Amino acid sequence: MIEVLSVASEAYPLIKTGGLADVAGALPGALTAHGVSMRTLIPGYPAVMREAAGGRVIYEFNDLFGAWGRLIAGRFAGLDLIVIDASHLYDRPGGPYAGPDGKDFADNWLRFAALSWVAGKLANGLVEGYQPQILHAHDWQAGLAPAYVKYGPTDQVKTVMTVHNLVFQGHFGWDIFQRLDLPAHAFYESVEYYGGVGYLKSGLATADAITTVSPTYAKEIRTYAFGAGLDGLINARASALYGITNGIDIDAWDPATDAELPQTYTANTLHKRALNKAAIQSRFELEATPGPLFSVVSRLTSQKGIDLISSNIDWLVSLGASLIILGSGDPGLEGALLTAAQAHPGRVAMYKGYDEGLSHLIQGGADAILIPSRFEPCGLTQLYGVRYGCVPVVARVGGLADTVIDANEAAVEAGVATGVQFSPVTSEALGDAIKRTVDLYADEKVWRKMQRRGMKSDVSWDASAKKYANLYASLLGQPLDEQSGD
Ligand code: ADP
């Protein structure tokens, strides 16, 4: 077994704000079958400590960045965890990064420096009987961890830095550097970023390998348009860069057993979805239309291209289709969608908020899901859509480009299409895609085939886990599993 220490600021089901938690939570289980034993180092937020309080104490610090702290190990919520119990850093109300007022904690630099510093110590044999061979850091919160390994005493441990979203970088003032317990030369060699300290930048500069969550995003982040200021560095490290597409939890997302659905179904009983569609229509007072019931399940932000949806609502309705929206976020975008919904009663409805159960019902009942993201490292909702026969209509960017097969004529003819892609990411191109979808829907045979093809495709973690396992093995100089693919 290869021993890997994963370092993450969130992990499902304990604490989640986004896709990172899904990956950190699902990868360890999927890796076991590929000869990898993964433990996860995570901060002891209140939600984590509620589970971990009774675990085994494996180390105590007199001074962990300002006060006493300790490490607790054990299996909690199905995960093999090492939890940092340090109340001065993590025991506070709010989410993992921000207080109840929605403002980022002012000491996030310290809270996540501590996470990375502990990871570095564990890599250097802090706890007797535990020696990881690989340290796998996720996002900026763990970005300093590869630097702590690089500037630490051992060069035996190899490091991987995974980028889940390049726009979140952890950029702080230069004056914190002296508190980080790194040698002075580390500043100009790797840590400095536009005159300050860059956590993600440090990870990108010092890790032995860099991964991101889809092959297309791995290419995009090398460009000025998607590189968020880091494209120069990423290009310099291109030979160490890999794109590995995320999977989804196919047990939690299974239309054959989903308890949130009034009617479960399989690829062979797709007609049963009609009951779920009817449930959505009656709950949101939507008319049954000749055209498809489109849906949106999303954070409402500019990244997700939500403005392109509001500018297409009149058009969508004019084509005889309807729309259900689930989401919250930017007040301006929320307002535009609500206004559009009010202008089309019976045809467009919106639920403002976050509702996991409703997101399942929508995937299990709506005909199509609109995802016009301006950039999308991987994206999950198109994968749920594919698995649930809710045909994804996506911008051809990032992971959306890699996981949806466009219903062009050749693909429809060959029976391999799973959705609709469009490019460039403009209102006009989305409008064309909506029209194309309405036309495809009108041909029941073609539509059913597309749904079935998607439902039968493999969106599990298995293939990705194998790629991560092979990457770890190659970093350790071990032979690759021959069936690995790229
Ligand atoms: P991102 O992490 O950028 O928000 P992803 O597509 O990777 O985008 O993941 C979004 C996740 O959040 C999906 O699981 C999606 O179903 C869920 N989600 C987004 N908005 C809502 C909402 N309003 N209610 C329920 N689930 C939501």
Short description:
The protein has 486 residues and is an alpha/beta fold.
Keyword list:
binds adenosine-5'-diphosphate; Rossmann fold; 486 residues; 2 domains
Assembly state of the chains shown? single chain
Strand content: 15-25%
Q: Which term fits the overall shape?
A: elongated
Rg result: 23 Å
Count of domains: 2
Mean pLDDT: 96
CATH superfamily of the largest domain: Glycogen Phosphorylase B
Biggest β-sheet: strands ordered side by side in the sheet: 3-4-5-2-1-6-7-11-12
Helix-strand blueprint:
Elements: E1 2-7, H1 19-32, E2 36-43, H2 46-52, E3 56-61, E4 69-76, E5 79-85, H3 87-90, H4 108-123, E6 134-138, H5 145-150, E7 158-163, E8 171-172, H6 185-191, E9 192-193, E10 196-198, H7 199-206, E11 209-212, H8 215-220, H9 231-236, E12 241-243, H10 273-283, E13 293-300, H11 306-310, H12 313-318, E14 322-329, H13 331-343, E15 348-352, H14 356-365, E16 368-371, H15 381-388, E17 391-395, H16 398-403, H17 409-414, E18 420-422, H18 427-442, H19 444-456, H20 462-475
Parallel strand pairs: 1-2, 1-6, 2-5, 6-7, 7-11, 11-12, 13-14, 13-16, 14-15, 16-17, 17-18
Antiparallel strand pairs: 3-4, 4-5, 8-10, 9-10
The chain binds adenosine-5'-diphosphate.
What would you note in describing this structure?
The protein is an alpha/beta fold and 486 residues long. It has 2 domains: 2-247 and 461-475, 3-Layer(aba) Sandwich (Rossmann fold); 270-455, Glycogen Phosphorylase B (Rossmann fold, 3-Layer(aba) Sandwich). The protein is 37% helix and 19% strand. It has 20 helices and 18 strands. A 9-stranded mixed sheet has the order 3-4-5-2-1-6-7-11-12, sandwiched between helices. A 6-stranded parallel sheet has the order 15-14-13-16-17-18, with helices on both faces. A hairpin with a 2-residue loop joins β9 (192-193) and β10. α10 packs across α14 (356-365) and α15 packs across α19. Adenosine-5'-diphosphate binds at residues 18-19, 297-299, 326-328, 354-356, 359, 379-381.
